[in-house]
C-alpha cells in the first residue's frame, strides 16, 4: 500500500529528483496495534531534515491524513519527502513542489531471543562517508549503507558497525550505537558522518539523567571493544543489546535503559487509524 | 521521451531502489546530428561503475536498441541503471533485476563566448564527501552536488569548484577540473572523492603525450590559484577554459588541448539512429 501525495499509486514520475539524485529525506516508523510510535519526534525530525537540505516539509495534518488513509495496524511505515520534479541538471526551478510518499511494509520479525541473548554484529569494511553538510540527516543517499549491508549474509547477524575515515565508530548500517564506557553511556557524535535516529535522540534528550548519564563523544574501536556493554537502537527494533562482534563479546545490557525507554515510548504514542472506533 | 526497460514510460515503480536509496549509476552523453559522442568509453564506464557497486550492466546491444528507439538527434541523453526493485530494507533479494532508464533532454545552450572568453567559477562552501567505496563512480547519490549547485544563482557562473575535507581541489559540481602547473596539466586524483568523467579519462588516457603531459595529482587551492591555466570538462560542455573564480583570474587555455580533443572526439563517434539512411 503506497500513496503519492495522498493518492494510491505504484509509481513515481521519472522527473522526480529522488530518482535522478536521491534528492530527498525519509523516516521509518513503527506502528503497533494502530499506534504510531514517537510520532511527535518523528515529525519534528522530518521537518528538521527537510530544512537542512532546503525542502519544505508537508504539514503534520497532511501526513496524518495520508497515514489514516492507509490505516496501518502492525506495520513499518516509511515516509519519503522528495524535492519534487525538474528537468535535467542539479539546478532547481523556483516553483518546484515536493512529492510525498507514504508506504506500508510488514514489521521485521525480530525474535525474542535477539533481546534476551543479545545481537551479533559484524565490523564493516565499508566506511561511513565524511560529509558534514549531510551528516545526521536521514536522506535518500544511502548507497554506502547498501554496500555495507552486502558484507554479510548470515541471518543471525543483526547489523554491521561502520567506522569513519579516521577509524572512529559512527553507527550501525541501520541503527545507532551506544557503549557503556566508564559508567557513562556514550554514542558517537554525528556531525561529520552518519544518521541521527529518533531513538538515539530520545535517549539523549529524554532518558539521560543523573542515574543514566548518556553523552555524545568520539568512540574508538579500542574503546568499543573495552566497553562494559553495548546496544544498538532504531525505530523498528528499539533497543537491542549486543552480545558479540567478531572475537569480541560484551555482557548483556541491564534492563534499566530498556525499561525507561519503554515507559517513555508509551507516553509518546499517538493514536491514529481506528482510534475513534 | 523516456524508456524504462525499453518501453515508453513516465514513471518508475516505487519499489525501485533508486527512489529508496539512490541505488544505481548513470551516464550523461551528448548526441549531435544523430551521433553519440564517445559511446565506447561511455559504455565501458557504465559497465565499470555498475561492477563497482555490484549491479549487472545491460548489454551494449540492449542499450543501443533503446537509444535507436528514441532516435536522438541533437540531445542530451541520460542512462540510469538502478539495482532494481525490492521490499523494505538495505538487504538485496537474490533474484533482483536491474532497471534501465533512457531519457532525452535538450542540449544545454552554451554560448560561444563561454569558450572564447572563458568560464566564471565560484568556490563552493559545500565540500565533496570522503568515501573511497564510491569515489569516481557516477552513482545516484548526488545530494552534495544538489546542495553545492544552490550556492549560486548567477547564470554567468558555469560551475562551482568543490574541495575535500582537507582542502584539496576535487572537481566542479558538474565537471572535472584540469590545471596547468609547471607546464604539466594536472587533474585531481579521485580515489576518495568525486566523479571520474569520461572526458577526463579520455584526456588522461588518449590525449596525454610528450607534448601535452597530463597527470593525476593532489592540487591545493594555492596551486590552483597559481596555475598557468585552468579548464573544466564534461560530456555536454566538452573543454571549457576558465577565466576567473572570485578574485582570481587565469589566462585563457591555448587551443592545443581543445583541438586534440576535437580530433579524438571525431574518431570516437558512433553513428546511431539514421546511420543507414
From TrEMBL, chains A, B:
One of its GO terms (cellular component) is cytosol. Gene3D superfamilies: 3.30.470.10, D-amino Acid Aminotransferase, subunit A, domain 2. Keywords: Folate biosynthesis, Lyase, Pyridoxal phosphate. It catalyses: 4-amino-4-deoxychorismate = 4-aminobenzoate + pyruvate + H(+). GO terms for molecular function: 4-amino-4-deoxychorismate lyase activity; pyridoxal phosphate binding. Pathway: Cofactor biosynthesis; tetrahydrofolate biosynthesis; 4-aminobenzoate from chorismate: step 2/2. The keyword Transferase does not apply. Its EC number is 4.1.3.38. Its cofactor is pyridoxal 5'-phosphate. One of its GO terms (biological process) is 4-aminobenzoate biosynthetic process. SUPFAM superfamilies: D-aminoacid aminotransferase-like PLP-dependent enzymes. InterPro entries: Aminodeoxychorismate_lyase_IV, Aminotrans_IV, Aminotransferase-like, BCAT-like_C, BCAT-like_N, Class-IV_PLP-Dep_Aminotrnsfr. Homodimer. Belongs to the class-IV pyridoxal-phosphate-dependent aminotransferase family. NCBIfam families: pabC_Proteo. This is aminodeoxychorismate lyase. The lineage of its organism: Bacteria, Pseudomonadati, Pseudomonadota, Betaproteobacteria, Neisseriales.
Amino acid at each position: 500500500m503506497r500513496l503519492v501525495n495522498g493518492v494510491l499509486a505504484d509509481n513515481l514520475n521519472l522527473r522526480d529528483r529522488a530518482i535522478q539524485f536521491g534528492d530527498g529525506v525519509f523516516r521509518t516508523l513503527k506502528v503497533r496495534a494502530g499506534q504510531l510510535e514517537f510520532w511527535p519526534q518523528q515529525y519534528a525530525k522530518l521537518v528538521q531534515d527537510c530544512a537542512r537540505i532546503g525542502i519544505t516539509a508537508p504539514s503534520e495534518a497532511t501526513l496524518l491524513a495520508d497515514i489514516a488513509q492507509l490505516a496501518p495496524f502492525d506495520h513499518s511505515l516509511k515516509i519519503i519527502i522528495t524535492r519534487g520534479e525538474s528537468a535535467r541538471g542539479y539546478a532547481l526551478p523556483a516553483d518546484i513542489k515536493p512529492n510525498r510518499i507514504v508506504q506500508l511494509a510488514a514489521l521485521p520479525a525480530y525474535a525474542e531471543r535477539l533481546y534476551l541473548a543479545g545481537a551479533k554484529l559484524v565490523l564493516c569494511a565499508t566506511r561511513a562517508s565524511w560529509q558534514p553538510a549531510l551528516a545526521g540527516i536521514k536522506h535518500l543517499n544511502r548507497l554506502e549503507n547498501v554496500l555495507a549491508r552486502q558484507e554479510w549474509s548470515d541471518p543471525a547477524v543483526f547489523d554491521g558497525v561502520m567506522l569513519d575515515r579516521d577509524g572512529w565508530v559512527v553507527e550501525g548500517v541501520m541503527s545507532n550505537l551506544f557503549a557503556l564506557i566508564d559508567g557513562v553511556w556514550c554514542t558517537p557524535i554525528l556531525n561529520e558522518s552518519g544518521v541521527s535516529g529518533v531513538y538515539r535522540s530520545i535517549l539523549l534528550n529524554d532518558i539521560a539523567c543523573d542515574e543514566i548519564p548518556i553523552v555524545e563523544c568520539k568512540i574508538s574501536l579500542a574503546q568499543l571493544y573495552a566497553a562494559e556493554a553495548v546496544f544498538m537502537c532504531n525505530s523498528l527494533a528499539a533497543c537491542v543489546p549486543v552480545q558479540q562482534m567478531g572475537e569480541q563479546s560484551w555482557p548483556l545490557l541491564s534492563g534499566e535503559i530498556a525499561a525507561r525507554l519503554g515507559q517513555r515510548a508509551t507516553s509518546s504514542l499517538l493514536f491514529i487509524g481506528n482510534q475513534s472506533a
